[in-house]
Amino acid sequence: MLVHICCSVDSHFFLEKLQHDFPQEKLTGFFYDPNIHPYSEYQLRLLDVKRSCKKLGIDLLEGPYDYENWLEAVRGLEKEPEKGARCEVCFDKRFIESAKKALELGENKITTTLLVSPLKSQEQLKRVGDEFYAKHGVEFIAVDYRANGGTQDQSRVTKEQQLYRQDYCGCIYGLTMQREQQEKLMDEMFSPLSKQILPASIEERLQMYTKRNELEDKNIAYKIVKQKFLNYRQFNFKLLQGKTQVIDAYALNYSILPRKRAQGKIEFSHNNVHYFNREEIKFVTISYFNEKTASSYKRVKDLIYNPLSFEKELHFRKEISDIEYDLSPIIIIDEIIKSKLTITLDAKTYEDTKEKLIIL
Q1: Are 260 and 326 in a shared domain?
Q2: Is 60:49 a contact under the CB 8 Å cutoff?
Q3: How many Cβ atoms from other residues are within 10 Å of residue 214's Cβ?
Q4: Which of 256, 262, 255, 253 lies closest to 190, judged by CA?
Q5: Hey, CA dihedral for 245, 191, 350, 180, is it positive or negative?
Q6: Residue 201, in any domain of the structure
Q7: Does residue 32 form part of some domain?
Q8: What is the DSSP letter of 108?
Q9: 29: number of Cβ within 10 Å
């Protein structure tokens, strides 16, 4: 039986049940989910599914990540709600590819872990699956593992196995609507050109779960816990000298301007920190930054495209500010400028939760 897999939270419990209920069947997992966006999230879910299938002794195949074709398939349905017409087209596309793979492998049965997801309609899935059976001769096995406390058992398995538990279905349209309803920042879509790994980002989770797998391979005990913290994202930053001259500059993380814009001059200097006459803004030179961080940047532009890690940057901020929760803008420039400056900075701090890997 070919089993279309969407994520480990659904698949681990689902595959365990299938192994129990269909002991005569050799199960093959098929990860085909071009709807998942961004690609880093796709990589993270695939990573966890590989680990899950390895634990269960199930072979796993990966389908193509043909995201552009998926976008074309759902064109015009972007505003459809969860479980609406867009989801049906999405199922349809993934089932067609699954049916082709099943025929290619000589399988005559398929099913999908989407059946156990509380975000999906089982009736909708069964209808689409039965249509494929009629067209392709591949039987769709519509099991209901949500019933009789199944959802609670799934949550238990997820916790016991320390699976990656995503909080959105996968597609950009569903994510957008969910974050709008929650009135939350859609920070899943932030990925700096500098490749700096931001806190609570998909990239940070990908790094952590990769480390988790390495610990398991070495039989090292660990625990994944959650912690609340103040997160930060910077949308836009620009420094002007006079009215038009753009100056290369880097604003440290957790730099906040309440009104997003400030004009003024550097008023005085103390211990290599240069104080602006507005909004508690501080300037430091790239040479001083190098000295304090043991770096060797030749110019600020190099820092912009290849910054330090988030943690090292925060350590430098603490040295400059001498307090734990400083949100003053700290700006790094090549040389101190005495003339009038205009700073534009659009950034946000917000309450958030992140995962942490503890080695026991």
Answers
A1: yes
A2: yes
A3: 10
A4: 253
A5: positive
A6: no
A7: yes
A8: -
A9: 21
Distance CA 311, CA 323 (A): 15
Contacts of 302 (CB under 8 A, 6+ apart): none
Domain carrying residue 234 = 230-351
Among 158, 186, 214, which residue terminates a domain? 186
Q: Has residue 357 been placed in a domain?
A: no
Distances in whole angstroms, Cα of residue 204 to Cα of each of 188, 195, 224, 233, 350 = 11, 11, 14, 14, 18
Q: How far apart are CA 14 and CA 253, in angstroms?
A: 42
**Entry pTM:** 0.91
- 38 preceded by a cis bond (ω within 30 of 0): yes
Instruction: Indicate the number of domains in the chain.
Output: 2
Do the domain assignments include residue 261? yes
Q: Quick one: angle between helices 150-160 and 8-21, nearest 10?
A: 110
Q: Mean pLDDT of residues grouped by 10 in the chain (360 residues)?
A: 94 95 96 96 97 97 96 95 88 86 92 84 82 84 90 92 92 94 92 91 96 97 96 96 95 96 96 95 98 97 96 95 91 96 97 96
